[in-house]
Request: fold
Amino acid sequence: MKTNHLKLKSEYHSSNFGLRTSNTNSTTELLKKVRKIEIKTRGLSNQIFSGEYHSAFKGRGMAFSEVREYQHGDEIRSIDWNVTARFNHPYVKVFEEERELTVMLLVDVSGSKEFGTQNKTKQELATEICAVLAFSAIHNNDKVGVIFFTDKIEKFIPPKKGKSHILMIIRDLIDFIPESKGTDISQALKYFNNVIKKRCTAFLLSDFVTNENFENALKIGNRKHDLIALRLYDKAEEELPNIGLVPMLDAETNNIQWVNTSSKEVQKEYKIEALKKRDDLKNIFKKCGVDTTSIATHEDYVKPLMALFKRRGAR
Reply:
């Protein structure tokens, strides 16, 4: 039996797994959710992520800041010989990192975003991760922008600074309702390359389960920008839970297929196919030179993000 994982974008119609839907929230409820995410993610950013983020994502270069007197341990090559000759005492040039980066968040808001059998849906996970990254960016005086995509470009928020801008982004992450349900990563990357002309740091958040070949678009995107892929997944997408005969809905095509989840053969095939897809995806990222990490809905996202930042910082 070959389910093709229903593109790993299935929603279980079973009492064991409640189907989560994104209803339009009242303004009050929405503001409460925004505030709750702000408190949690800004705290994480200030206490844990900001320093690592600064090390992991470098500015455009070094700019001259000032001249000061030579101190023991300063490099001889940093001596300003003109000023030294004028004052008959050694002075050195001090340089500072030209920080101001542009950070883009490319967020997959296709039908699978509402799927989640553990602590969070993928949408909720993406929202918190984006908020942490955004607060870390503005803490380092960087600009943040967002592209929401499905199989079309749903919304573009141009990069800006400031807390009010970040709160607007969080609000949209929580409440945005896309027009389409499919996934087209190549189109999203092409649009991104066209709309953001200068080199920037970009986080691509998706489950990356699609039949399209987006490898070439990934290569081009990473050549022009610093591209990081964050794969979001749910535990049930890699291990089929034993909940009997259930109808599974592909959230992107609305096709329903009955699956006997109790069958050992079905469970085995499901897992083998999931692991193969995961390994194929890793190979694509490696081939394209794209930094990546996987984050599950049942796990704390702090650890994988910190590991990613430290790997980059060490380089």
About this structure: The radius of gyration is 23 Å. The chain has two domains: 4-59+100-314, 62-97.
